[in-house]
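Schema walkthrough. Field components (list of strings):
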Amino acid sequence: MKGGGERYDAIVIGGGHNGLITAAYLARAGKSVLVLERRPRVGGAAVTEEIFPGFKFTMFSYVVSLLRPEIIRDLDLPRHGLHILPLESTVTPMENGDYLAAWGDHDETRRELYRHSPRDAEAYDEYGRLMHFMAQAVKPILSMVPPDPTSFSPGDLAGLLKLGKHFRGLGGERLHALVKLMTMSSADFLDEWFETDVLKATKSASGIIGTFLGPRSPGTAYVLLHHYMGELDGVFRAWGFAKGGTGAVSESIASAARAFGAEIRCDAGVAKVLVRNGRASGVVLENGDELEASIVVSSLDPRRTFLQLLDSKELPDEFVSDIRRFKFRGSSGKVNIALDSLPSFTCMPGIGRQHRGAFSISPSLDYVERAYDDAKYGEFSRRPYMDIVFPSMIDPGMAPPGKHVMSIFVQYAPYKLNGGWTDAKREAFGDAVVNTVESFAPGFKAKILHRQVITPLDIERITGLSEGNIFAGELALHQLFFLRPAPGWAKFATPVRNFYQCGSGTHPGGGIMGASGRLAALRILKDGR
Amino acid sequence: MTASFDAIVIGAGANGLVAAHYLARAGKRVVVVEQHQVVDHSADIGWVPPRVIRDLGLSQLRLEQPDPWLTVPLDGGSTLELSRDMGRSVEAIRRISPADAAKWPEFSRRMRTLAGVLEKLYLAPPPDIETRDPRELARIGGLGLYVRRLGKQAVIDLARILPMAIAELLDDWFESDALKGALGALGIWHLKQGPRSGGTAFNFLHHHAGSPAGVFRPVRSNLTQALEGMKRVEVRRGNRATVLAKNGRATGVVLEKSGETILAPLVVSSAPPRATLDPIAIELDPEFARAVRNIKERAVVARGTLTLDRAPSPSYANLCIAPSLDYLERAYDDAKYGRDSAAPYVEVQRFNGNRLELHVQFVPPGRHEGLAERVAQALNVRSDQVQLQAAEASLYHGELTLDQILFMRPVPGWSRYRTPIQGLYLCGSGTHPGGGIPGAAGRNAAAAIA
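Field assembly_structure (string):
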């Protein structure tokens, strides 16, 4: 055997945030843990890279808020360098030159809303209270291993009963609101509350992020709620930047894991999981080295975990077809821009505090829906929805003095583009993005020093996320809870003994949340007892 | 003022008449008030629960179960004919896709199991998930046990498929565009959703209720006419009725044209919940009134008739123009922006051998310029042969989306046919189980009143 017969209690495949969190919790419990990362640095989709000299970018994910507070506490992440800076505002430029703004100051936001609709300003607080409450109501589910309704085991029955009691405890009105959030489109849900189109468009935008759905597609109200679960220092719906970019989040978790004794090896891609007699016994690296471990944990998405790292022969046929059916359909792109100076937006001319927050390019529901229509038929959006931030305004270390970096999250860019993605198509997509920004901020194009365009195909190539889906599998109702990633296998165990899954493709999944990684570690520790 | 009744039923459609007959059977003096002067001769589409047929002794009821149940034109002039006989459907599908033909029986079986669960849910009031009543808890427990006895696959299918988009479900099973278009059309029936919208798989199964395995078009009947002909209850036609309520209690109805008032301690409305409750909104709790206003009942369907010079050739009982899922999705895209579909989904339903009825979707409210021409073009007939009547609101009195079914229908928490107004009940398609199951809501409501 090559590789010197190293043996670990646990090997974690993939050094994204979930893999690192699992590793940290296992190491904290005294296990000898090795994390294997294919790329030269940890972080997966949460990495900061200097793409142009002096300009640092958070390549893919760009805001932090979903990271579970118990993880921040358990792993003492602030001590390991996690420092989150608040993102203060959201400005939506409208096509008539007006704007809608939400500021850090609540009263100011209300005054701004009042300008558009007194009725909406009234409804806004009530809506906020409801969403806050619903997010609280769903939170225990995020920290719960989903019970399997098809099983008759006492544990599952007890889990189902507990779940039923939890829901009934919400009381009629809130239970009904939960059903609506689970089933409605964000546009329909918001229609029940507000009348201002641009407000509904901007709110609904957080319901489409990472999905292959439009604001009028049922199921998007749930994603709305999913994003409401962001919690920074106990404040709901507060988004923020990590100082040093999202890569710094990964680095802080890695540092915590190392402090607990975990070993992290980069440039160490895993080719296969070793299975002997139906049990995982270690891994084979891409360079041929074999490493042994009592248990193996994969943080890769379900498709790569089960269809690439394992031989299908090791898995039940039905399970394999369930995993094949699991939907990814990446729909998001990212454009990173190095700027000579900040652009001025027509709706709010000049450079000011608005640049410390986000600009949401979602002027109307029809605008966002049309962007989706393009993608539905295999084209990128000609006028896409965008979420724009200037990280260098908040963390000056991200760009050389006087210069700026701009991060544009874009939807929609379908993974399966008609005719496939080519270099020319990628640039055409980048042009569509830049031209759309230019239409709201004339003069913007002249300030561009460099631009990097990332398509879902690029996300897949670089991070390994199948079809470039940023949630490692769509957050659709039929892919959640006990169905994530496959019915009967939502409890982090897999059909192969001693082989576990801990990535965003498992319950509850999605965003830089880390709940999957933590729950998986707790499950592994419980099994090992 | 006229002779007093025990109960007034608003609307002489299938649900109103079924409710009226059940109430009459229970010994109540019932009058039905209907706004239209003439009896509606169009067919009732959907499963008539056998229980209703038995209870009301509907000897005049004619169910039409055509065979083949669907004819789909294919490129190149041939057709795909789907039959009630599983083997013949498999043979027909094999000509366009052997892979799809091989999966047809299993698909049909799995869908039948799920529709069976819905049928069980539809013949009773929706489960009350907030209840503390031991009898209701036992009933819910019984339903849970029933589902689990169907096996592991059924439980998973139920959880997985109901919230799915019909397009995703069909893509999981089949490859043929023609087959997927014809099946997918049932998933968007009466919904302002395209086949790629979540919840359309539920709508598909809803309309499969009452049909045998492998038949994905609802049965058609003359239910309304048969009830009308039974003369057990008095029907007054040609006058729109508005509910009268005072101090939180229904007192009767007032007829719009004549101004006549009919008094009764019980008013049962099969009209849309919003239309019923809006005029008495002042009597309602603001939260409830808001929930009523939030009922989604957007119009998307035009019904009509097709007049042919001679019998269609080749002959068909049910012709479906929905060549692919993308075709349906594009038809929906137009409706999203408030336009009629440039290329609409059209279905021709043939009754009693020669009357041809049309179902055209998507037709949102507005002006319908050129719609008849486009329908005619899709059917390859002259536009003067097409007569269309666009609906002003959902013909189901509330779309069958997942947030508007079971205990959420017509409004959350008020799914038991009762309203906050004492003595006022709802019994139409706007209540559980909704449109496409004529008579079920009427029967459930009558049972809730008794």
